[in-house]
Amino acid sequence: xIKNNPILKMACIFFISLFLFGCCTTVKNKLNDPVFQTExxxxxxxxxxxxxxxxxxxxxxxSIVSETSRYLEKQIGVRLEVKKILFSKTEYTFDYEKLLIDxxxxxxxxxxxxxxxxxxxxxxxxxxxxxxMQFAKEESIKTMMIPVWEGIIDDYYRxxxxxKHKDPWILLHEIxxxxxxxxxxxxxxxxxxxxxxxFPFLTNLKFRSYYLGNDDRKEALKNKFRNFNNLEKVxxxxxYP
Length: 241
Description:
The protein has seven helices and seven strands. By secondary structure, the protein is α/β, with parallel strands linked by helices. The protein has a single domain (about 25-225), classed as Collagenase (Catalytic Domain) (3-Layer(aba) Sandwich).
């Protein structure tokens, strides 16, 4: 009966999400603890090279990054700073592997053409924002209980990422992947792999956490000062691109 009833499907997602986040212990209640705050020191600032399409403005990008930075700094002592914003020639595709490879190649071409091959950025973020038709198509797919990616990060360097929505939560989730390297997702907090969205098209009505689980924070702090520019493999993928 659930299989053929979209309302029951959404109800199941609602209660499963409520149960998971209700039973989960995150660092949210520790943010004002002096010991916790000391563990976040010293502060690290990450530089972002941002690509965008026509569906988002520079001001919106800076606002999203600023909001994301606020959550990062409170939890692991990391700030974000947008250093450059350019239009991307990488086009919309549902194939996230192709998208990430195209993004990687576009970035390398830019460095060689305009920055003497010098890689002076930490994270490369493509704000690959959906237009209304693309958004409607993907929200319709969700009603059939088919997974749809909203944000992705490469699983080799863990620094190239793309977002489909103007949502700081998605950027925050992907950036935490840069520092949590022993596993992809968790059963607690922001690194839980799914969001509980009650109704399609109403993307603001979601059950989700902005905070790390305790174990994930420990690993993020351990890898907080990893070097993003040494081009060494840190993820699970065997080669890239």
